[in-house]
């Protein structure tokens, strides 16, 4: 018995995939950017005293965002108001997304919930700064001797 390596892309092309890829009807009706894929790209940096979270969210204004903390959860959302979006009939396809997103994070225990979270929106990047708890930062791992 021999094993044959399968190429999944090949089977799609063989089953009419080639004609579907170049069909204009499918091109204009394809909803590639579903809501799940519309979550913004995100970076998280850990520094000695804080965490910095960056979201790539161009096209919004700072008033479109809501950032809050409840218990050990960080909530970040944005909603573009419909009156800000111009409705023009000249488009064949319109993919610029100004809709909304909502993301929830469990914050690490090292974040101090009593310290204010700093938020800044500049050039399409939302930056959040969460400060660490000094008590947690000073707790070092202790080695336990085994008798």
From TrEMBL:
Record-linked SUPFAM superfamilies: HSP20-like chaperones
Gene3D superfamilies in the cross-refs: 2.60.40.790
Ranges annotated as spanning the membrane: none
Protein keywords: Stress response
Family annotation (PROSITE patterns): SHSP
InterPro entries hit by this protein: A-crystallin/Hsp20_dom (IPR002068), HSP20-like_chaperone (IPR008978), HSP21-like (IPR044587)
Pfam family of the protein (one): HSP20
Organism superkingdom: Bacteria
Residues of the SHSP domain: 33-147
Record GO biological process: response to heat
Family of the protein in this entry: Belongs to the small heat shock protein (HSP20) family.
Stated name of the protein: Hsp20/alpha crystallin family protein
Lineage: Bacteria, Pseudomonadati, Bacteroidota, Flavobacteriia, Flavobacteriales
């Amino acid at each position: 018995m021999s094993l044959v390596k399968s190429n999944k892309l090949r089977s799609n092309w063989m089953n009419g995939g080639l004609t579907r890829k170049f069909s204009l009807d499918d091109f204009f009706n394809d909803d590639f950017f579903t809501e799940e894929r519309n979550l913004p790209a995100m970076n998280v940096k850990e520094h000695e005293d804080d965490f910095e979270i960056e979201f790539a969210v161009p096209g919004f204004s700072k008033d479109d965002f809501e950032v809050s903390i409840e218990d050990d959860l960080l909530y970040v959302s944005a909603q573009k108001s419909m009156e800000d979006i111009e409705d023009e009939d000249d488009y064949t396809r319109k993919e610029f997304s100004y809709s909304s997103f909502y993301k929830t994070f469990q914050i690490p225990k090292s974040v101090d919930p009593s310290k204010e979270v700093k938020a800044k929106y500049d050039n399409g990047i939302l930056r959040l700064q969460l400060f660490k708890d000094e008590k947690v930062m000073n707790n070092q791992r202790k080695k336990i001797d085994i008798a």
